[in-house]
Amino acid sequence: MEIDDPRPVAEPLGRLSAAVGTPPTPQLRLRESPLAITDAAVLGAPPVLEVRNLDLWYGPQQALFGIDLDVRRNSVLALIGPSGCGKSTLLRCLNRMNDLIDGVRIRGQVLLGGEDLYDPAVDVISLRKRMGMVFQKSNPFPKTIYENVAYGLRIQGERDRRVLDEAVERSLQGAGLWEEVRDRLDQSALGLSGGQQQRLCIARALAVRPEVILMDEPCSALDPIATGRIEELIFELKKEFTIVIVTHNMQQAARVSDFTAFFWLGKLVETDVTERMFTNPRQRITEDYITGRFG
Amino acid sequence: MSTGLRDWMRRGNGLVWLSAGVLAFAVLMIGGLVGLIAARGLGFFWPAPLVLFETPAGPVLGEVADREPARGGEPGRIQLRVGNRDLFGQDFRWYPESELRNPTLPEDALMVERSEYGVFLGRVKELRKDGLTVSTGPAALDEALERLPGARKAQAGIRAVEKGEVGRLNTALEAIRLERKALERRPDPARQPQLDAREAELRSRYADLEGRLDHLRAEAKRLTVLLEAWDGQVKEMPLPQVVRLVPSNRLGLPGKLKVYASRLWEFVSDDPRESNTEGGIFPAIFGTVMMVLLMSALGVPLGVLAALYLREYARDGWLVRAIRVAVNNLAGVPSIVFGVFGLGFFVYTLGGSLDRLFFPERLPTPTFGTGGILWASLTLALLTVPVVIVATEEALAAVPRFQREASMALGATKWQTLWNIVLPGAMPGILTGLILAMARGAGEVAPLMLTGVVKLAPSMPLDGTFPFLHLDRKFMHLGFHIYDVGFQSPNSEAAKPMVFMTTLLLLAVVVALNLAAIRIRRRLRARLGGSTF
Questions:
Q1: Parent domain of A248
Q2: Do B411 and A188 touch (CB under 8 A)?
Q3: Which residue of chain A comes nearest to B413, CA vs CA?
Q4: What's the CATH code of the domain at A104?
Q5: Is residue A228 part of a domain?
């Protein structure tokens, strides 16, 4: 199954030198956002996911270079960087979705609870159950709302109607959608609005009780109100789950994440606690990016 | 002016007009074809006036069937349908226009549709019972009209007994004969007397039935009509052999409509008569529909599975590309070649082996080793499978990637994703393939002629006799019927309108099947929420 063409990795280098200038005043405004609070507890939490020296090639073209990254339990990690920098590729490495693409080669380790995902003994199917994924474009199945949420359990062989009912309600409540759809669970999911569809996709991922939720630009196709609801939801979800989110929206990264990792040309430039990253980045290029001088 | 023209061209107006014109031309062609078929076919059932002419050779009664204008030195000619094949030798006759004079429409002129020898044109002279005159002249016609439904009903009763009870007894006797044959090879002394007793019982029931039938037949023959042609020849026939009495000239519009409806109904619901030139074509309609349904049931799973592997599992390479090209080219193989393959492989090889394995006692009479609806459907399934494969492949490719990814990300295996997400999403496209396949399959005749279609099938492939579905039976088909009636008929002049009507019905059957599939597809599409296919 051919899924995707190799993505272009290179960004024009010339623009970086043009972006060199005086360091900007830190954008304190961002910190006033009501949601951005990094718990002290999170800072000391043990890592759930550890990426160790990960290289990835699309055919002959290398897309990721020696990535090292930790994701702490019940934290939100934002992956930022210009288009084609490898952040989505890294995200898809975490549940081995890149396996579906022909010509992808990976070296290095991704440890989930200390166990290497790329160990040949690992069952990809059961691994993906532990890693929920929410995509850039909301992608509900052309089925009823109920069947969308129940899908993950059904393919695991769950037949008991009560278990399914309970899981559907719990997941929809978890995604903040229950009150809106409880009376029309048997209607097509395609009749929901864009924001509702995206929350339905989150509910669908929650239903199988994953440990980590991977979000690939979940709000890029949504209006500001729907985006706000998703961000609130992320804030709620991190109490129970660990979240890795790819975003192009700096404010969003600042608002929802505890940690931020900045990627450029397939390399991890720096990663830090979000407040520190946005107020006092160590690298010049990070600063240029988050202040909008390039990218 | 030239800039105006150039501007006009640049806006693409020329192309719009061209494409609209081509479309209009296509619509006109199709409309004209269907219109011609409908006009020539549907008009046939309308009771035409019976015209009496005076000719040098005496009076002639007939329907005006055709007219040739005078051309060059040739005088104009008129074709009359004079009927009375048993008396005159032929149904249709050409007359020079100058010979036909004084046309009149006699009130008592009558068209008698008979179950044998075609139509009779003339009048009723007498109605007789047991050879004694009951009534004469116009009164006889009225009484015959009144008694006809009862007589027809009795006749239908006899036919039902012949087909039903006699048929069942014959089937049972045949089973006994086959079992005896099997016993010859593996003798079983206990079974022999049982069979003897059973056969004796069946034979006595058969004799009873024969007696009853003889009685019924004799009863039916008691009432006869004496018909007289305009030249004075008379013909006596039992009333039940009359299918319909149509006094065309004295019928008003409602009466004519009634005749029309009755003829149309007979056409679509009855068995053929007179080597297919009269009566109905119901067995052919039934055979066509059943063959198409069987073909779809056999061909679609084949095509869908093949496409599934080709698109989803096979690694794209020169081999897969070669197969794809081969499949596309398969659609261009002449259908008669498929027929030859069906005859050689399905009928002789597969069917012959089945007969040797499962029906050895019936040999040398073949069961599956001869053409039948199963082999014909399989042959057509092979013929239409490329269409299904191509359509299915396109439909699979059109299922959005993000839906597959969503399913995989939830821990579904590839097979679960295919079964739960991709196949349902591709269903409308697969149905498009089915629609195209049905349209192609329903119209094929050549391969059927080798694999199981017949001019007249004694019994239908689906009936009330166990096991109800008889896949080994030969069947009738509208397409073959057109060929047979139009080109193989002993009385092609009389059969001409039948050809048009049969064609019209074949078109109607194809349209009906397609509409059904389109309906299902629309419902599926609505559920999928505006899929691209």
A1: 47-138+211-290
A2: no
A3: A125
A4: 3.40.50.300
A5: yes
Which chain A residues have a beta carbon less than 8 Å from that of B312? Answer: 1
Contact A241/A74 with Cβ under 8 angstroms?
yes
User: Under an 8 A CB cutoff, do A205 and B529 touch?
Assistant: no
Query: What is the per-residue pLDDT across B438-492, written as a single tens digit (0 to 9) for each?
Result: 888 888 899 999 988 888 877 777 777 777 778 888 888 998 988 988 888 877 7
Q: Is residue A268 part of a domain?
A: yes
SS3 assignment, position B106: coil
Total of domains in chain B: 3
Characterize B143-157 residue by residue with b for buried, 16 or more Cβ atoms within 10 angstroms of its Cβ, and e for exposed: bbbebbeebbebbee
Q: Which residue of B has its CA nearest to A152?
A: B410
> B410, A208 in Cβ contact below 8 A?
yes
Tell me the chain B residues in contact with residue A154 when contact means C-beta distances shorter than 8 Å: 420
Tell me, yes or no, whether A95 lies in a domain.
yes
Query: Shortest Cα distance from A256 to chain B (angstroms)?
Result: 23
Task: Note the ipTM here.
Answer: 0.79
pLDDT tens digits, one per residue of B298-331: 999 999 999 999 988 888 889 999 998 998 888 8
Residue of B nearest to A125 (CA): B411
Give the containing element (helix H, strand E) for A65: strand A61-72
Cα dihedral B166→B171→B177→B181 (10° resolution): 170
CB distance from B318 to chain A under 8 Å?
Answer: no
In a domain, B266, yes or no: no
Number of inter-chain CB pairs under 8 A, A vs B: 80
Is the pLDDT at B1 greater than 80, yes or no?
no
B97 belongs to a structural domain: yes
Is the same domain home to B348 and B491?
yes
Separation in Å, CA of B401 to nearest CA in chain A = 7
Angle at alpha carbon of residue B37, lines to B31 and B39, rounded to 5°: 95
Minimal Cβ distance to A128: which of B404, B410, B529: B410
Residue B39, in any domain of the structure: no
Cβ–Cβ < 8 Å for B91, B80:
no
Query: What domain range includes position B69?
Result: 51-104
Are B345 and B440 in a shared domain?
Answer: yes
Q: Classify residue B90: in a domain, yes or no.
A: yes
DSSP string, B244-290: EEE-GGG--HHHHHHHHHHHHHHHHHS-EETTTTEE--HHHHHHHHH
In terms of domains, do B99 and B127 share one?
no
> How many structural domains compose chain A?
1
Tell whether B366 and B505 lie within a shared domain. yes
Residues of A in contact with B414 (CB under 8 A): 1
**What is this structure's pTM?**
0.79
Report in angstroms the alpha-carbon separations of B81 from A283, B66, B112, B121, B267. Answer: 104, 9, 13, 9, 20
Cis peptide before B69 (omega within 30 of 0): no
Which CATH number fits the domain that encloses residue B307?
A: 1.10.3720.10
